[in-house]
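Summary of Year 1 activities. Much of the first year was spent building the evaluation harness for sequence design. The harness presents a backbone, in tokenized form, and records the residue chosen at every position. We chose the following record to illustrate the format because it has been used consistently in internal testing since the harness was completed.
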């Protein structure tokens, strides 16, 4: 047995012997940051070491991803990755200095975040079938808002158009808040949006929810039908998961995954995730790796077919 193998085994056996860091690719206070901090506070006990969240925002998450990709593969630097960083942005931007598949090892899929297809109360369609019929009757007359080019609502809108053969006009905004203002004011026809920003508007009757983007209904709004009930095979969501640099010892990955999976099974944690508009997942390295690979191919094909460009 080589000295290198012995050294790796010894390191894994004593892991962790110092604080662990979770790198978040966005600013403090956002959803990704809150999810990371919920995990960090629960991970410290089982690991026997403090778990620190560090924010490295910028360049749509790629600064943090590159930083973690180039960090030592020892399990002490984790990335709170998401759909955009690992499976969308790499197909939108050239010259990235990291490879989602070659530079990272999946640890655990943490949450799925469904998106809801919403319209203003005055919009003439009340369900997905009526929306599609309206779009086909007036090609190019309907608009859909997004948080910006390449954002999940943009990709979701293009996926819906591709799956149904309808034509819509994309209206990108600089963030979700201004997009939702125009949606409520019926200045754009529709948008895909996560749950927290729309709860108040749904309760007040200002917004209608036509469907949820996941393949089946979600516990977040169980009475809302899945878009897939009308458009078979339609499915997308944002997701968040922990990854580590390629080459991290498998024993270390297994330890981290076991700890995080148990945390995500806790009812209190699941409720806190639901309050953020997310369904706790807890899928391990193999299942998470399959998701990353399949989603990467799915979005690559759509981006190429639709000619989607980043800012």
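For this record, the design step produced the sequence shown next.
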């Amino acid at each position: 047995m080589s000295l290198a193998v012995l050294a790796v085994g010894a390191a894994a056996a004593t892991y962790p012997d110092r604080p662990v860091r979770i790198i978040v690719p966005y600013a403090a206070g956002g959803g990704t940051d809150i999810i990371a901090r919920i995990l960090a506070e629960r991970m410290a006990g089982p690991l026997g070491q403090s778990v620190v969240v560090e924010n490295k925002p910028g360049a749509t998450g790629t600064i943090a991803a590159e930083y973690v990709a180039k960090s030592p593969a020892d399990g002490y630097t984790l990335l709170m990755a998401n759909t955009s960083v690992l499976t969308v942005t790499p197909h939108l931007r050239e010259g990235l200095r990291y490879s989602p598949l070659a530079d990272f090892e999946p640890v655990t899929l943490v949450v799925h975040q469904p998106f809801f297809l919403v319209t203003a109360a005055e919009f003439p369609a009340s369900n997905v079938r009526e929306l599609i019929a309206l779009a086909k009757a007036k090609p190019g007359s309907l608009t859909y808002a997004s948080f910006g080019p390449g954002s999940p609502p943009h990709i979701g809108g293009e996926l819906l158009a591709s799956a149904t053969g309808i034509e819509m006009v994309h209206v990108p905004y600089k963030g979700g808040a201004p997009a939702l203002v125009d949606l409520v004011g019926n200045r754009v026809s529709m948008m895909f949006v996560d749950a927290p920003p729309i709860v108040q508007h749904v309760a007040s009757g200002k917004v209608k929810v036509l469907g949820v983007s996941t393949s089946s209904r979600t516990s977040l709004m169980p009475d809302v039908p899945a878009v897939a009930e009308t458009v078979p095979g339609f499915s997308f969501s944002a997701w968040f998961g922990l990854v580590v640099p390629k080459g991290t010892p498998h024993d270390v990955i297994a330890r981290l995954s076991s700890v995080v999976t148990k945390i995500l099974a806790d009812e209190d944690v699941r409720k806190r995730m639901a309050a953020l508009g997310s369904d706790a997942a807890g899928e391990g390295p193999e299942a998470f790796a399959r998701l990353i690979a399949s989603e990467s191919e799915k979005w690559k094909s759509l981006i190429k077919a639709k000619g989607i460009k980043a800012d």
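The radius of gyration is 20 Å. Quantitative recovery figures across the full test set are reported in Table 2.
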